[in-house]
Amino acid sequence: MANPWIAWPAGADPGELSRSISAAHDEFLASGSADGAVRAVVAQSWQRCLRDGIDPERALAPLHLSGAALAAARRAHPLARVMPVIRRLLVDDATDAGLLVAVSDAAGRLLWVEGDPQLRARAEGMHFAAGANWSEALAGTNAPGTALALDHAVSIFAAEHLSRAVTSWSCSAAPIHDPDTGAILGALDLTGGALVASAQTLSLVRATVAAVESELRLFSVTGHNGLGAPTGVATLLGLGRHSAVLRHQHGETRLSLRHSELLMLLAARPDGLTADDLAIALHERESAPVTVRAEMSRLRPLLGGLRLESRPYRLLDPLRTDADLVRDHLLGADLPRAVEVYKGPLLPQSQAPGVARLRVSLHAELRAALIGSADPDALLRFADTDHGRFDHEIWVAAARALSSGSPRRDEVIAHLRLIDRELRG
After folding, report:
1. How many CB atoms lie within 10 A of CB 369?
2. Is 213 helix (H, G, I), strand (E, B) or coil?
3. Which of 27, 161, 313, 377 is the most exposed place for a label (fewest CB within 10 A)?
4. What is the pLDDT of residue 225?
């Protein structure tokens, strides 16, 4: 059975395939229906684009970012840190082969377009350039936009593009996900001639995406995750984790849930907490100050050199938490970075009242900032996670932010209906 995501199956004649699809494209524009020569994934995309008001004769991707705004969007995006990997694995060879490599954000805006200089100049004529929005709803059927709309790798060949201005090009693209949360970060695309729509090219794109996601995972695991702590300052990671990880000058220590709670509470109160304060914050029925003191004694040798005072319990050395960084980014109005760092609610398994207050407060602050924003990329990256998937207000805000066109618009509206049904049920 032919792979429905590949435009150019093995053994097919590209000239004959191009003529067949061109005829089907003309017939679709005349009658509104696609014949059997068109893959279902393409025909469905054509129908979505027409419902979104795309004019196939005039549609060009709008330019949404330029100059300082484009530079800021690049700096803030988590894929900026893996661009060296993309350049090493794909861009260098693509340039030699006369092809283009594009990287978009989750809303379809191209942040980087690199490769053959002559082809880049030609592509700019159809607005295939950094800063342009190639979502389906704004540019018609195309590989990066359709990959984002369907959350699946796909190739688009010649006249499978709905817009006439793009039918001489072919492309293969795949979505890139945050390895921790599963959120769509953007899409990786390879654009050029007919060969770009082959199975081999789509496999190359998918392999590069796998390498990119592995690199992102490595950043998270090794601590190169943007925590921004000065050299030598210990960091405590508790967002989205069952128990916290303490990174210190001697390495890292995975803490038990109880020790995670204690250290997170101390990090939030640099002025210190008494044993009574901690007992109340932990809310163990059997808890008494003596129990807390016993746990603190067990915690002390796990601190990797951090000094701990006892009366009250107080850290004498600075400790940076990932929750601190989320708040720093919110204060700096850097919402994309805040969403990137926020891997989930703080110590979600903890039932300690003091930790629950920290968890609820941070989550509410981030949600409020997102709901009040018009940043479709940040909203989508939050909505795509376990902690955002059934957050009705977040999805409403995403729908509002995407009203001018997005590859995710139909999905967002359909998901809102699902949430509504769940709430009614």
Report:
1. 18
2. helix
3. 27
4. 43
pLDDT computed for residue 174 by the predictor: 97
Q: Which residues of 280-313 are buried (b: 16+ CB within 10 A; e: fewer)?
A: bbbeeeebeeeebeebbeebeeebeebeeeeeeb
* CA–CA dist 24, 31 (Å, integer): 10
**What are the tokens at 329?**
């980014």
Question: Domain span at residue 261?
Answer: 243-320
Tokens of 28: 């679709």
- Distance of alpha carbon 48 from alpha carbon 357, whole angstroms: 44
Over residues 145-163, the mean pLDDT reads 93
> Looking at residues 349-376, what average pLDDT do you find?
93
Torsion on CA atoms 220, 223, 226, 228, rounded to nearest 10: 160
How many beta carbons lie within 10 A of that of residue 270, not counting itself? Answer: 11
Report the C-alpha gap between 389 and 399 in whole angstroms.
14
Report the percent of the chain where pLDDT is more than 70.
94
Domain assignment of residue 232, yes or no: no
In this model, does residue 219 exceed pLDDT 80? no
Is there a domain that residue 407 lies in? yes
Place of tokens 């909505």: 383
Per DSSP bridges, beta strands 308-310 and 313-315 are: antiparallel
Helix axes 376-383, 353-371, angle to 10 degrees: 140
**Residues 305, 366: one domain?**
no
Q: Read off the tokens for 66.
A: 């330029």
What values do phi and psi take at 390, rounded to 5? -120, 30
Quick check: is 388 in a domain? Answer: yes
For residues 208 and 302, state if they share a domain: no
**How far does Cα 127 stand from its chain's mean position?**
24
pLDDT score of 226 more than 60: no
Distance CA 354, CA 266 (A): 11
Maximum mean pLDDT: which of 6-10, 194-198, 223-227, 358-362: 358-362
pLDDT, tens digit, 9 for 90 and up, residues 52-107: 888 888 878 888 888 888 888 898 898 998 999 999 999 988 888 889 999 999 88
Task: Please calculate the CA angle 281-284-288 and round it to the nearest 5 degrees.
Answer: 85
Q: Is 328 exposed, middle or buried (0-12, 13-18, 19+ CB in 10 A)?
A: middle
